[in-house]
Amino acid sequence: MRKTKPVKVAAVAVDFGGTLAHPGPSPDAATVARILRDLDGPSIPDGFAAALDEVMRGTRAVDRPLHEQTPFADLLRLAARGSGAVLDDPVAMAKAVFSAVPDAEVDPVAAHALWTLHEAGLVCVLACDTQRPESVRRATLRQARISDCFDALVLSSTIGVRKPHPRFYATVIEEAGCPAEEIVFVGDTPAKDAIGPAAHGMRAVLISPDGRPPGLAPGIGVIAHLRELPAYLESLHAF
Predict the structure, then answer these.
(1) How far apart, in whole angstroms, are the C-alpha atoms of residue 54 and residue 23?
(2) Taking burial as the number of CB atoms within 10 A of a residue's CB, which of 111, 143, 202, 236 is the most buried?
(3) How far apart are CA 109 and CA 120, in angstroms?
(4) Which residues make beta-bridge pairs with 86?
(5) What is the pLDDT of residues 168-181, one digit of tens each?
(6) DSSP letter string over 151-201?
(7) Nearest one of 97, 108, 45, 106 to 75, comparing CA atoms
(8) What is the model's pTM?
(9) At a CB cut-off of 8 Å and minimum separation 6, what does 190 contact?
(10) CATH topology for 11-24+104-235?
């Protein structure tokens, strides 16, 4: 039987929390109110935290079924309107909030694997759901000394949709600059980082320390940690 030549890999799309980094905290409404009160300019009344909590719950209930994401600055704007707070620049305030809250901590072993892929000439795209503005996530990547590895960032906070929304994967393919079948998407959530990308023509590798989950399609690769990805791709003669 004639063997099929493997399709080359030109790009990797890498999830962040749980894949490249240990997940970081998400600020609750009380924490946001405290951070904003410490800044010069905003006027934050006592009812702001309650208003923000209500806004966050309401928008989450609307956004989740549609896999959409309301910008955090809009949440602040709505909470200010409902509480009488004064926020001159909600976009700047959103950046200030996430600059004050620790981001996910990049795993140095995973970072080394990323550098290996980058040095091999692969296009690297960060592809993740996050509330954090792009500028804050870029600062995290710079601090971990991996910002130069990425050719593009696809963040739900920037494009307004979350995995597994089709537009998220379409944006990844566009930013990778190559056909979908030449992209390997790697992450730790089966529906978002494996099944979704595969349904949109990409190849997928699931990070799963406990092995292959039941029912996962045979064509989806499984590794225990991102450090295994370079060797996995080499075993496929993919790059």
Answers:
(1) 25
(2) 202
(3) 17
(4) 43
(5) 999 999 999 999 99
(6) SEEEEHHHHSB-TT-HHHHHHHHHHHTS-GGGEEEEES-IIIIIIHHHHTT
(7) 97
(8) 0.92
(9) 206, 208, 213, 216
(10) Rossmann fold (3.40.50)
Which residue in the block uniquely carries the two structure tokens 């595969």?
A: 198
What residue ranges do the domains of the chain occupy? 11-24+104-235, 29-100
pLDDT at 24: 84
- 68: which DSSP letter? B
Q: Which residues pair with 187 in a beta bridge?
A: 206
Q: Please state, in angstroms and rounded to a whole number, the distance separating the CA atoms of residues 175 and 145.
A: 21
pLDDT of residue 6: 64
Flag residues of the chain having pLDDT under 70: 1-6, 237-239
Residue 33 is encoded by which pair of tokens?
A: 């109110």
Give the other-Cβ count within 10 Å of 119's Cβ: 10
CB neighbour class for 6 (10 Å; exposed up to 12, middle 13-18, buried from 19): exposed
Give me the pLDDT at residue 201, please: 97
Q: Are 192 and 163 in contact (CB under 8 A)?
A: yes
